[in-house]
Structure formats: structure tokens, C-alpha cells
Amino acid sequence: MTSEETSSDAAGGKGGRVRTSERAGAYAVPALSKAAEILELLASEPAGLSATDIAARLGRSMGEIYRLVVALERLDFLTKDALLDRYALSLKLFELAHRHPPTKRLIRAAIPILERLAVEAEQSCHLGVLHGDQLVILAQADSPQPMRYSVKIGATFPALETSSGIVILAHSDERVQEQFLSSLLPEARGPMAERFARALEVGHERHASAVVTGVTNLSRPVFDHAGTPLAAITIPHLRQVPVHTEIERALEMVIAAADALSAGLGWTGAAEPNPHTL
Known about the structure:
Elements: H1 20-24, H2 30-43, H3 51-58, H4 62-74, E1 78-81, E2 86-89, H5 92-98, H6 101-121, E3 125-131, E4 134-141, E5 156-158, H7 163-170, H8 174-181, H9 186-202, E6 205-208, E7 215-223, E8 229-238, H10 247-264
Antiparallel strand pairs: 1-2, 3-4, 3-8, 4-5, 6-7, 7-8
Helix pairs in contact: 2-4, 3-4, 6-10, 7-9
GO molecular function, one term: DNA-binding transcription factor activity
Domain HTH iclR-type: 29-91
Organism: Arsenicitalea aurantiaca
């Protein structure tokens, strides 16, 4: 304009969470293990939690948790909403992960695909990933047209205000969807759930931008070898007289580009439905 967590009721801890300290064995460092538990918990809570809620969810006392939460905030791993008294993950972990080979691999594989898409569709395009409740732009390519609309690398947007976020969430676990839906006003949850369902049914989204009037977002998720949605490729389509590529053709190109990137990551999913038949 992500990540899934597996828990086991047999593993102990509140909510079936497998504690990091329980996995670490004899070489566990208690404070570090508890800090990791906090980060792992908040990774699945895009709206954040209070210190009291964190302690309760982890089955630990406030005395064990509070100083660690304050330290993590001081080190910029957490942000605090002073009004709601809630803590959430900052972008620091994302910034660190950005240096990690899998993220570099994703960007490296995406760049030539995005550059080709921008030229062929005559539109700017970008690759976005979820980070908490935000959509973060990892890579982009500019339209060859002298007048264009593009999104800056590193820019963040509320995920539910972007088609990239919608298509990623539509193909994500229902628990993840519910967490995002619960952050909305009650009257907005039904329409958003329907939008998820539609994007899942057709495999992509064509939707008017919630941010820029006159722009239509064309989005398709990118999958890894296991079929998990890692990212999304989006064209923020800007209709111009000099552009010869129709929006329907541009949508086909987005689908093909996203699927090419997915295939490069090992995805072997079913072919995308023809957008003209939906």
C-alpha cells in the first residue's frame, strides 16, 4: 500500500503454549527464556496485551514479568500504548529478520519479478509482508510512465487497510483472522470477514484503495513450499490515458507474477482461477 503458532494442550502452560524455558533444557537462562516467551506471545497478539494479561497468559507472576517487559520496551523490542496500557511488538525484530537469509532470499527473488511486472503492466508494484497488525513494504518497482503512484520501501500501513494484508490474512489460519477481526468495531467485522472469504475464494483481490482515491489495488498472495502465505504482490493500479494495459490484463499479470515467485519458493499449489470467470 506473519507467522503462525502451533500450540499443544498437552505441553503445559496456559492456553497450551509450549514454554521456551521448557524446550531449552538444562542450559536455559531463566530471564532470557522468559523474555523469549513474552516476545512469542506478543507475536500472535497484534492488538497487544497489558503486563497483567501477559503474566496471566504465561502463567507467571507479575514480579517475574514486569521488569522484563519494561526492559524489552527500553531496548525497543516492544512499544507501549500509554492510553490502553498495552505492549506490542515493535518493528525491531522485523529489522533484524530483514538481515536474515530467508528474508534476503525473498527480496532477491522478488525484485526481477517486480521489475518485469512494472514494465509489462505499465504500473508500479510492490511486495508486502505482515508484521504484527501492519503491512510492511519489502520491495517495489516503479512504473515506466512519467506519472506514477508507488509506495516507499519500508513504509508501513494498517494491514486491514491494504489489499496486500487482506489477501495474506484471507489465506491464513482462522485464528489469525479472528485476532484481526476482534480489533474492529462489531459492525465492521461481518463485512471484513466477507472480504476475507471472497479473497480466499478467488485467490486474489481487486479493490478500490482505502488510502488513495482513483487507485484500484490488484493483489495476490505469495506462498512458501508449505502453502503458507508469506507476502503479497500488489499493483496500485492508476488509470491513465497513455497506459495501454487494461486493468483486467494487469490483474492477470499480478497473479502470474505472484505465482512465479511462489514457485521459486517451492510452492506447488493449484492453478489460479481465471479472473474473468469470477
